[in-house]
Structures are given as structure tokens and as C-alpha cells.
Design goal:
With about 550 residues, the chain is of the alpha/beta class. A six-stranded parallel beta sheet has the order 3-2-1-18-19-20. Strands 7-11-12-13-14-9 form a six-stranded mixed beta sheet, with helices on both faces. It has a five-stranded mixed beta sheet with strand order 21-22-23-24-25. Strand 4, helix 3 and strand 5 form a beta-alpha-beta unit. The longest helix is centred in the first third of the chain and has 17 residues. The radius of gyration is 37 Å and the shape is elongated.
Length: about 550
């Protein structure tokens, strides 16, 4: 049986997501939710949306998918039950009864606003009893009179001073009269039975309170004397032994609770949380929000079963391009159209990796295979992903399957490929107002080729002067990123969709580019005469150089 959070499966593309990544995630989630009621499929993204994708989502009236910065399981992936709590002023008896009733060993202590104050466990109660064997002194931890009466199920006979707390040393009068009177000091609390012979003497000796056990009657003379001397008299229905034990159980929790609480937040990783629970003397950790308000408590039992986020990867299958923590997640499927990368799984999974122009094409074919009707808005997203990734069906990666699917989607979405393609292109090529960093990372992917770490960005422009105005800023950002991430090579491909060829800005080992394409890099710049697909032509060529050099 899956809990609600364990039923969630995130469908997510690569970092620096493009339209194909986002659109395929949304549409594959739609397909899976129609076909599979076992899980709830949730589209997600691994970074900020680019301007083209924002245009697409707005045009077809979709919200941006939720952003996930890590797939590592956290406390938020546990179905936290409503925590059982107590207040600092509650008695030991209250919390002990709660523990027995709920079959728990630990109770968080909170204030009226549910802010965490401390924690009490069975061990704290046991340690308290061991530490307070013998004569009890209430001076440091006064007992609330109302709690005491409730715990004893007793009654107040006389309370001339209107006392609301019981203080002083506690003495059980279970010996001869002379011995008792010699030991009692003014301000003491005395527990005794129907020994009327010494009740008056104790009152006259300055006792603060008498607790009369066994529902024993109290004479009018004793009541009058107590009223005159300011002595509190309580009647308990229990015998002396039981009354003494219940007095201990009336102790407020603030006197025994520990403030050394193992605390975690919702986004604490399970690996860290597990370590906290193992090291805790309470065998648990308390989950709080940023204001220290209690959200739940996690025990060893909650962590017995593996806790991992479930995920379907779309439009990528490489660790370097995946969101953080992907190897800690339970990968259920991979839907992609790139080279086979380095992601591995512990169990067999469904992988659909086709050498075609777009991941969205694969999603459409799966919909058609399962005879799932494609709504107009879904068709618009899918068409957008295909046209974006194939540069309006012109790149060398474009196949007849992409073209055939695009035509079907255009009819359903009630658009023409030519006109909508121009809208999409206009939304994707504007770099006005963007920094060098934004231009570089707009469509940036990382690759491990042989023993080389390569980063490749790609940007579409019509007016070369726009990119030249940003060139210094772009180069500076490329060098900063290369140093920070230790890339052997960073390349920015600059594509004009109306002309043939690729301009390049290069930082790092330029010999890789020169050898792969037979060109010369000068002043960190170069030109390749033909327009290249990054995944089908550019990466394979430099990958060959990296693995054979």
C-alpha cells in the first residue's frame, strides 16, 4: 500500500530546460495519468524557463511545472502524521497515560502556538523517579493545585490563602506522633490518614498543607484551625501509598522535559535524518518549520523502508544534465532521443530512446499506440516541442516521423506549421536585455567525453550585432564558468536560422574544435560552414576527438 506522497512520480527533463524538455514532461504526465492509476504523475522542471517556453505555456494556457532542485529524498517525502503533543504545564500522569493509550515512547512538548519547547520520553519519566526517591521537595518544581486535584480525583477542604500551587518538602506521616512532629518543619506538605490526634499539631506547627488520604473525614475543629493558620487541606480518595505516587505524577512536564531535541526541517535529506534518529537517545527526530512550529515526529519505524523519490526522466539520460540527487531517486522510466549516457539503475526499467528529432514525437507516438485522444492544448505543447527541437523541421535530426506527427498535431491544435513556427522562432531568438550569463546558460548542456568535461551552449540570433555587443560579457562568463566547474572546454554555438553555418565562441582546449572540424580558432572565435545539430553532429565529432586523442 502506497501512501499519498509515495504515489507521486515526478516527470522531469534536464537542467536549463528547453521547450522539448518541458512540453514532453507535461504531456507524458498527462498520458501516464490516463493509463496508470497506481501513481500520480507530476510534471516538473530542473531550472528556469527560457523565453520560448514561457511563450508556449502562455499560448496554450499551461502553468509552469513545479521546480525541483534535488531528487534526493527528504523529510517532506514521509507522510507525517498529526503529531501527538503535550504542554509544558501538563503533568507526568497526563503524558504517561497518553503514551500508554497511543503506544508511543516519546512526546514533543509545545506551546499554545505549536512551537517546539522540548521533548519527553519514557526514559525521562524513569530517570525522574530514580532521581527523586526519598523525601520530595516541591520548592524547585511547584505542583499546580488544579492538576493535583485532577490527578488525585480529590477535593479541596480548606484553602484560606487561595493557593494555586503546592510548594515545600513532602513528608509522609507513617510513624509515631513524636517522631513526626520532630521532623516536620514550617512550610512542609504532609500526607497522612485519619490521624486526627496529630492533624491539629501539624497545623499549629506551621505546615503549609495537609493531604488527608482514604476519604477520611476532617473535623470542624481541624478546619477552623486550618482556616486560622492559613493551612491548605486536601482530601484524597486513595490510600497513602497511592496518594504519594500520584503526587509524583502531578509534577509538571517542564521540570523533566529535555530541550536537546534532534530537530530537522522538511527539506532535510533522509540520509541526514536517518543519522539523527540513530544518534538520538529518543530514537526519533522532530520536524519543524522555519518558525520552529511542530510539523511531525519521525521514528526508527518510519525509516525502516527505503524512502526515495520516484521519477521518469525525459529528454536526457546523463547524470551531468540531470537534476541534483538523481542517483538517489528511484528511476522508473527514461524517454529520450539523445545518445545513451551514464545513468544506471538497480532494477530493470522501461527505456524508450529513439534517434528522432524530439522527445515530444515519442510521446505522441505512445499516445497514438494506446489510442489516447490528444486534446487541443496538449497537441499545441507537443507541436511546440517538436518545432523547437528541430528548428521548424529543418535540422538534420528531423525524421519523417517528426514531420508526420507535426502535421497531425497542427491539425488538432488548429495552427499551421509555417505561421506558428515563425511565432515560436520570434519568441526564442530575442536576447535583448539578457546578460552574458543568461545567453550562455539559455540552452546549456554538460557532457563527459572520454576523460574530458565539456560544456556546450546554443543560442539563436538573427542580428549578429546583438551577439557582438554582448561578446565580452559572454566570454567573461564562459571563463568564469570554466574555472569554477573545471571544464576542459566550453563552446557557445551561435545559430542564425535564416542562414547556413555556425559561429562559435570557445574557451578552453580549442584544439578539440580545430581537430574535429578542421577550422582555426582565433581570438576565441571560429566558424563552421554547415549548420549542426548539437546531439547528432557536433557532440559526436568532438566526442571522437576526445576519446581517440
Amino acid at each position: 500500500m502506497f501512501t499519498e506522497k509515495q504515489k507521486r512520480v515526478f516527470i522531469i527533463g534536464h537542467k536549463n530546460p528547453d521547450s522539448d524538455s518541458i512540453c514532453s514532461a507535461i504531456c507524458y504526465a498527462y498520458l501516464k495519468n490516463v493509463l496508470d492509476k497506481k501513481y500520480l504523475y507530476v510534471p516538473a522542471r530542473a531550472g528556469d524557463l527560457n523565453s520560448e517556453t514561457e511563450f508556449v505555456l502562455e499560448k496554450f494556457n499551461f502553468d509552469s511545472p513545479m521546480e525541483i532542485v534535488s531528487l534526493a529524498a527528504t523529510a517532506s517525502d514521509i507522510d507525517l502524521k498529526e503529531p501527538i503533543v503535550a504542554s509544558a504545564g501538563d503533568s507526568i500522569r497526563d503524558v504517561a497515560s497518553l503514551m500508554r493509550e497511543k503506544n508511543i515512547r516519546t512526546v514533543p512538548i509545545v506551546d499554545h502556538g505549536k512551537k517546539l519547547l522540548g521533548i519527553v520520553g519514557l526514559k525521562d519519566i524513569a530517570e525522574y523517579y530514580i532521581a527523586h526517591l526519598g523525601r520530595k521537595n516541591l520548592s524547585a518544581t511547584p505542583i499546580d493545585l488544579n492538576i493535583l486535584i485532577q490527578t488525585l480525583n480529590g477535593t479541596v477542604i480548606v484553602n484560606p490563602k487561595k493557593s494555586d500551587k503546592l510548594t515545600g518538602k513532602v513528608f509522609v506521616a507513617a510513624m509515631q506522633k513524636t517522631s513526626i512532629l520532630n521532623r516536620i518543619q514550617p512550610g512542609d506538605v504532609v500526607i497522612l490518614g485519619d490521624r486526627a490526634d496529630i492533624q491539629l499539631d501539624l497545623i499549629n506547627g506551621g505546615c503549609a498543607a495537609l493531604i488527608i488520604t482514604g476519604d477520611s473525614p476532617v473535623s470542624h475543629e481541624v478546619e477552623r484551625a486550618a482556616t486560622k493558620k492559613g493551612t491548605l487541606i486536601i482530601s484524597s480518595p486513595h490510600d497513602t501509598f497511592t496518594t504519594t505516587r500520584l503526587l509524583d505524577l502531578s509534577t509538571p512536564l517542564y521540570s523533566i522535559m529535555s530541550e536537546k531535541v534532534p530537530v530537522a526541517e522538511l527539506y532535510t535529506r533522509i540520509s541526514e535524518l536517518r543519522q539523527q534518529v540513530l544518534e538520538s537517545e529518543y530514537h526519533s527526530a522532530v520536524i519543524v518549520d522555519g518558525d520552529r512550529r511542530l510539523l511531525g515526529i519521525v521514528t526508527r519505524t518510519d525509516l525502516l523502508q527505503p524512502i526515495r523519490k520516484k521519477v521518469v526522466l525525459v529528454d536526457h539520460n546523463e547524470t551531468s544534465q540531470a537534476v541534483d540527487g538523481v542517483l538517489e531517486a528511484h528511476i522508473l522510466e527514461i524517454i529520450d532521443h539523445h545518445r545513451v549516457g551514464d545513468i544506471s539503475t538497480l532494477m530493470p526499467i522501461h527505456v524508450c530512446n529513439e534517434p528522432i528529432g524530439s522527445t515530444c514525437t515519442i510521446v505522441v507516438e505512445l499516445m497514438l499506440l494506446h489510442r489516447i485522444a490528444i486534446p487541443r492544448d496538449i497537441a499545441g505543447l507537443l507541436l511546440s516541442g517538436i518545432l523547437s527541437d528541430t528548428l521548424i523541421l529543418t535540422l538534420s535530426t528531423t525524421t519523417d516521423r517528426d514531420k508526420d506527427v507535426a502535421r497531425k498535431l497542427a491539425r488538432i491544435a488548429r495552427v499551421t506549421i509555417e505561421e506558428y513556427g515563425k511565432e515560436l522562432l520570434a519568441a526564442s531568438i530575442s536576447i535583448k536585455g539578457k546578460s552574458g550569463k543568461e545567453i550562455l546558460l539559455h540552452d546549456f548542456k554538460e557532457y563527459s567525453l572520454g576523460n574530458k568535461k565539456i560544456g556546450v551552449g546554443q543560442v539563436l540570433v538573427i542580428d549578429k550585432e546583438e551577439i557582438r555587443a554582448k561578446e565580452r560579457d559572454i566570454k567573461s562568463e564562459m571563463e568564469r564558468l570554466r574555472t569554477e566547474k573545471r571544464y576542459d572546454l566550453i563552446v557557445l554555438l551561435i545559430t542564425n536560422p535564416l542562414k547556413t553555418g555556425e559561429e562559435l565562441i570557445v574557451k578552453g582546449d580549442k584544439r578539440i574544435i580545430e581537430k574535429a572540424f578542421g577550422i582555426e580558432i582565433q581570438d576565441d572565435k571560429g566558424f563552421i560552414p554547415q549548420t549542426l545539430s548539437r546531439k547528432k553532429e557536433f557532440i559526436p565529432k568532438i566526442g571522437y576527438v576526445c576519446t581517440t586523442s
